[in-house]
């Protein structure tokens, strides 16, 4: 600890002063470096929050995943704010207040010391003659004034240096404590978010992906074997003028089914989405009829009669609602999620289907089945759409058995070139010639 000098500097005091000043300089340099590191951590965490927010925007079409991502985004943003308040700000305050004060007081002390030394030099050069008594008295007053000024400056400077020795201990611990507490809070809330409920959801998605991959591997192996069988045929079948037995086209078509199964069915219908609502179950057509009634009633009450045309694409794996102008998929469902479908009993242009999902809001960690009905108006009979969905499900089921798939395809009409003709094109055949946007529903 620096002792306060009364009127002059002692050798011990000067030695301690140099040690304390050197320590203050090293502390200032270290604080600047530590602050740069902490600001870098804060910047990275802020960028993490922004990146997570951008990811959330990309996942908006997947409602449940997006909600989880939004929650994670809020956690990252909260962590960045806590770092700014409890880690970066205390260190900036220490640098701007304590270290800047030391630097200012050192400068004041140096000026006072220079003034005192200048007064002492003038006093030591004073002649010893009697007629210089008045000048001597003035110099004595100047020396006393500068000495008092230096003494006061040294008292303030030494007090600040002594206080810094204690303050620096807290100043170095406070930001690290704030950083640690912010991280602990982040992980605690993260554990609450990623609870058993989320674990179950992720496990379900992981199992689904593994099942899909297994199915794809199986189909790829079947296609490879079929290709090998076709390529091993006798070269004689390729001769243009050779008389030979008719080619067994049924066998060829059967083999080709393995290549065409995911892309064989791809039918597009021009439809207008009327609305959707939650229903109590997915194994009863009555819920679809009730959904149609309520959706149409709601549109009539609110005077909503104009709708936007979309394209409903049905394949052997999914149903997709596509914007006809941009070709962007507005919403999509896996075929196995569609558990019921039906056309209106009186208005043949109306149809709807029920999609099964999982409701995670009950908090029991397992999730409960949820069902939603979607109602559409088409340009042709709704039964045609229902037939196509049913055909897609039949193809999906028959793909498990090559013989059953071949038998199913036998009953489908063929074009003159021998290719399968599933259904006639349906989009763009609006009866009244209206454009794809803002069509008036007849429902």
Please explain how this structure is put together.
This protein is of the alpha+beta class. The protein folds into 2 domains: 11-194, Substrate Binding Domain Of Dnak, Chain:A, Domain 2 (Up-down Bundle); 258-440, Pleckstrin-homology domain (PH domain)/Phosphotyrosine-binding domain (PTB) (PH-domain like), CATH 2.30.29.30. It contains 8 helices and 9 strands. The chain has helices spanning 11-58, 63-124, 133-193, 196-231, 249-260, 286-301, 382-398, 402-410, and strands spanning 266-279, 306-307, 309-315, 318-322, 329-334, 338-343, 350-359, 368-378, 439-440. The strands form 2 sheets. A 7-stranded antiparallel sheet has the order 5-4-3-1-8-7-6, with helices on both faces. Strands 2-9 form a two-stranded antiparallel ribbon. α7 runs antiparallel to α8. The chain is elongated and about 140 Å long.
Give the gist of this structure.
This protein is α+β, with helices and mostly antiparallel strands. The protein is 59% helix and 14% strand. It contains eight helices and nine strands.
Which homologous superfamily in CATH is the superfamily of the largest domain? Arfaptin homology (AH) domain/BAR domain
The total strand number stands at 9
Strand percentage lies at 5-15%
Portion in helices: 55-70%
CATH topology of the largest domain: Substrate Binding Domain Of Dnak, Chain:A, Domain 2
Which class best fits the helix and strand makeup?
alpha+beta
Instruction: Outline the biggest β-sheet.
Output: 7 strands, antiparallel
Low-pLDDT regions? 247-259, 417-422, 425-437
* Mean residue pLDDT: 78
């Amino acid at each position: 600890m620096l002792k306060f000098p009364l009127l002059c500097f002692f050798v011990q005091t000067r030695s301690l002063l140099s040690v304390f000043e050197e320590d203050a300089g090293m502390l200032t340099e270290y604080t600047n470096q530590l602050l740069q590191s902490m600001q870098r951590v804060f910047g990275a965490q802020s960028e993490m929050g922004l990146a997570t927010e951008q990811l959330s925007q990309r996942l908006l079409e997947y409602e449940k995943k997006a909600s989880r991502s939004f929650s994670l985004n809020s956690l990252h943003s909260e962590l960045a704010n806590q770092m700014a308040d409890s880690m970066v700000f205390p260190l900036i305050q220490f640098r701007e207040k304590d270290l800047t004060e030391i630097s200012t007081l050192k400068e004041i002390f140096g000026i006072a010391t220079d003034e005192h030394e200048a007064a002492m030099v003038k006093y030591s050069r004073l002649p010893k003659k009697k007629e210089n008594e008045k000048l001597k008295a003035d110099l004595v007053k100047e020396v006393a004034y500068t000495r008092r000024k230096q003494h006061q400056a040294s008292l303030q400077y030494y007090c600040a240096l002594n206080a810094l020795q204690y303050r620096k201990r807290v100043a170095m611990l406070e930001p690290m404590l704030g950083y640690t507490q912010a991280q602990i809070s982040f992980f605690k809330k993260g554990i609450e978010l990623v609870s058993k409920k989320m674990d179950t959801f992720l496990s379900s998605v992981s199992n689904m992906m593994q099942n899909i991959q297994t199915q794809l591997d199986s189909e790829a192996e079947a296609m490879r074997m079929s290709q090998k069988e076709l390529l091993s045929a006798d070269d004689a079948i390729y001769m243009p003028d050779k008389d030979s037995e008719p080619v067994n086209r049924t066998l060829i078509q059967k083999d080709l089914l393995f290549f065409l199964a995911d892309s064989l069915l791809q039918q597009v219908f021009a439809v207008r989405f009327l609305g959707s609502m939650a229903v109590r179950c997915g194994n009863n057509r009555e819920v679809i009829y009730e959904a149609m009634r309520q959706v149409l009633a709601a549109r009539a009450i609110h005077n909503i009669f104009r709708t936007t045309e979309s394209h409903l694409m049905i394949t052997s794996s999914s149903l997709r609602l596509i914007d006809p102008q941009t070709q962007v998929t507005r919403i999509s469902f896996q075929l196995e999620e569609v558990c019921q479908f039906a056309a209106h009993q009186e208005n043949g242009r109306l149809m709807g289907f029920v999609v099964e999902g999982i409701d995670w809001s009950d908090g029991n960690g397992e999730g409960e089945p949820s069902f939603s009905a979607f109602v559409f108006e088409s340009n042709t009979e709704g039964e045609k759409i229902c037939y196509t969905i049913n055909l897609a499900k039949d193809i999906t089921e028959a793909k498990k058995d090559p013989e059953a798939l071949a038998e199913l395809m036998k009953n489908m009409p063929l074009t003159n070139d021998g290719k399968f003709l599933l259904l006639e094109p349906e989009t763009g055949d609006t009866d009244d010639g209206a454009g794809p946007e803002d069509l008036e529903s007849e429902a």
